[in-house]
Amino acid sequence: MLLVLLPLLLLSASSIAAPTQLQFESASPSAAQSAPQQRASDLDFTPITAVKENERFTDLNPDVELVALKKEKHGKGNIVFTAGQRISGDKLLVNNYDDESFTKAVDLEVLMKYPSASGTGSTLTSIEIYVDSSANEADAYFTAGGIGKTTASLLLTSDQTRTFSYEAFFYGY
After folding, report:
1. CA-closest candidate to residue 166, choices 84, 123, 111
2. For residue 119, which of 1, 38, 87, 173 sits 20 to 30 Å off, Cα-Cα?
3. What is the pTM of this model?
4. Cα–Cα nearest to 168, from 150, 151, 160, 156
């Protein structure tokens, strides 16, 4: 009898604690709609692309001011780029990962833009980009927007690399 009563008791306890569909539907819609919900599609980015000298972002956009992100090297090819800092109440807005290998060493670039053309930006508090490259050097720059704003455009570069991977995290509120 105990074997029959115990599962029934657990089942009734879980049904009391679990919210019903009616409770979900009657929740205040204004609270759910107060902050825009971000999706991975809220970040536009280019593939990791090999570039020649006359195809570089800086050659095609000579008037753009590049603002470097803070760079911290953690060994050969492992670099962390940061801007801003996490604050109480912020959240992960979007993140993106990509990697690429080349048969010979190339110069490469990646462009990222938050929010995407279809997105609504939240105020950015922090951006972290983790890079792993066969080259010993890489750089990351804001090309527009930035921390404290609702938009950011970034440029990642690495010269003479055969492998390159990155993961970018955008935080805000």
Report:
1. 111
2. 87
3. 0.75
4. 156
- Taking the CA atoms of residue 58, residue 59, residue 61 and residue 62 in that order, the dihedral angle to the nearest 10 degrees is 80
pLDDT tens track for 49-107: 999 989 999 999 999 999 999 999 998 889 999 999 999 999 999 999 999 999 999 99
Distance CA 171, CA 25 (A): 29
Tokens representing residue 82 in the block: 């940061």
Assess whether pLDDT exceeds 90 at residue 39: no
Higher-confidence residue of 12 and 93: namely 93
Diameter of the chain by CA atoms? 81
Backbone angles phi, psi at 147, to 5 degrees: -65, 140
Backbone angles phi, psi at 47, to 5 degrees: -65, 160
Report whether pLDDT(44) > 80. yes
Q: Tell me how far apart the alpha carbons of residues 102 and 109 are, in angstroms, rounded to a whole number.
A: 13
The candidate with the shortest Cα–Cα distance to 47, out of 2, 105, 91, 110, is 110
**Cα angle for residues 84, 88, 92 (degrees, 5° grid):** 65
